Amino acid sequence: MDLKLYGAIDIGTNAGRLLIGYIVESAGFLRTRQVEMVRVPLRLGKDVFETGSISKPKQEQLVNSLMSFKLLMDVYGVQKYRAYATSALREAKNSSEITKMAGKRTGIFIEAIDGQKEADLIMSTFYTQPMPDMPYLFIDIGGGSTELSVIFKGVRQNSRSFPIGTVRELMGRNDPQTWKEIEQWISEHKIPGVPMAAVGTGGNINRVAKILQKLYLQTISLDEINAVLDNLKSMSYEERVIELLLKPDRADVIIPALEIFTSIMRSAKIDFTYVPRMGLADGMLLEQYKDDIEN
């Protein structure tokens, strides 16, 4: 079987990722299959939320990451790829300058996508999962933004991206007013009179599923997430790295991530979540595959 390899470069607020994979159809669903995943701790958001711009050292780190991603794609024989950036780069005052410079030096031209497209790509992964037929609140928490989508009868009803995230919280840049907007949005768009479940995506909720040793699509209760959160809070940063084997740039953001996640679940009166372990990069692979099919 000749499977076309796609690449997805996701330049996030906390980390940069390269996903190499292909698409298969299984049981009526399109599924992404990972061949390689590389994650580098860029944390562009630290600069952006402090000064509004990305510093020269961070720019060099970004360029070096892109060059390494390009070499890996060459090694694997990737036939097509896209490079998207989210909250930090799209908010940086020198975003245009950086994307031009990085493109000139690496040949990889990054597109800083808006929050709605980010939500659309993440949401597209929902349709690759054999989920029960019920209403869902899709929750993706990143370093700089949180994407929410309401799904009913298998159809997305509403989506919105909110400027609240884990790195913002570490930097003291989450605006309390945003929480009021999230609560109002949930109140206006949740399906009345019908219990909802959450669908959680992103590295932090994926880590919770791993800590709890959950099987694929096995539900995680709000109480279980709170228990993990309490345990994490009782540990020092060093203990979280050494005992739980968390990456250094995961060990600090996981606490604000779970605080945001559980707050959203409580606001929506949701008792449990599914964790399909998919994300933006998977959506980027699907986008390229669908473009090829349509064209």
Proportion of strand residues? 15-25%
Can you tell me the CATH class of the largest domain?
Answer: Alpha Beta
Q: How many strands in all?
A: 11
Q: What is the total domain count? A: 2
Q: What is the overall number of helices?
A: 13
* Major sheet: 6 strands, mixed
The CATH homologous superfamily name of the largest domain equals: Exopolyphosphatase. Domain 2
**Structural class assignment:** alpha/beta
Distance between the termini: 21 Å
CA radius of gyration? 19 Å
Residue share in helices? 40-55%
Q: What name is given to the CATH topology of the largest domain?
A: Nucleotidyltransferase, domain 5
Weakly predicted, low-confidence segments: none
Shape: globular
CATH architecture of the largest domain: 2-Layer Sandwich
What's a concise summary of this model?
By secondary structure, the chain is of the alpha/beta class. The protein has helices at 44-51, 56-76, 87-91, 95-106, 115-124, 166-170, 176-189, 203-211, 222-234, 237-243, 248-251, 254-267, 280-294, and strands spanning 6-11, 16-26, 29-40, 80-85, 111-112, 136-141, 146-152, 155-162, 197-201, 220-221, 272-274.
